[in-house]
Amino acid sequence: MSSATVLALPFTGRWSVRNSPTRRVPSHGTENLADRYAIDFIGVDEQHQSARAWDWRSVLATEPPERFLSHGRPVLAPLDGVVMAVHDGEDDHEAHRSLLTRVPYAWGRASREARGVSAMAGNYAVIAYPDMSAHILLAQLRRGSLRVEAGDQVGAGQQIAECGSSGNAQQPHVHLQAMDGPDPVHAQGLPVAFADFREWVHGVDPPYFVETGLPGEDSVVEPLPRS
Questions:
Q1: CA angle, 81 as apex, 43 and 71 as ends, to 5°?
Q2: Domain of 189?
Q3: Residues 17, 137: Cα–Cα separation, whole Å
Q4: What domain count does the chain have?
Q5: d(CA 25, CA 4)
Q6: Tell me: the pLDDT tens digits for 117-140?
Q7: pTM of the predicted model as reported, rounded to 2 decimal places
Q8: Residues 48-85 pLDDT 10s
Q9: What is the CATH number of the domain that holds 192?
């Protein structure tokens, strides 16, 4: 991971890992929109459960985003840098946990992608290192929760928004990717790694303590307290 852009995890608490580049590259099955090394995080509790309820809607229908633990959790800047772009105004749609709704929703990805960045990323922020060596996109943010504007200076650990389910999201989660430019339409994806976190592999205690690395698919991570 020597060539990876090393970041802080963009949250506190425990989060489950989805679409990790440790599983495959491109991690989301496409090179489009600089997605090559993107990674997703879903908020969980101490039992590593992602939702507050499981009922008939979980099996047969869509579910309100508010029943998922990710929804509304703070999203933090993963680096010291400058905000290059923000987008707000996209609705947080219902979750598609049920296989009956998840499969048809996945089939609609191509039409969403054709509508552009906002249809895929939803509400988002792009933060760059001061030397512009990498640009970090944080996406699927909750509508109306953005606390930063283009041109703002931010520090690692500063809250910039809340987790939502805007854009291409089957349930509330945080999507993160590194790029070589500020516009995902024209940029290329860059490898990422994260510093100082615990990782539960397949939810089994005890966790590993990781100084620098990339968490694996379906593991659970928690950032270590900042010194």
A1: 20
A2: 5-223
A3: 17
A4: 1
A5: 14
A6: 999 999 999 999 999 999 999 999
A7: 0.94
A8: 999 988 887 888 889 999 999 999 999 999 999 999 99
A9: 2.70.70.10
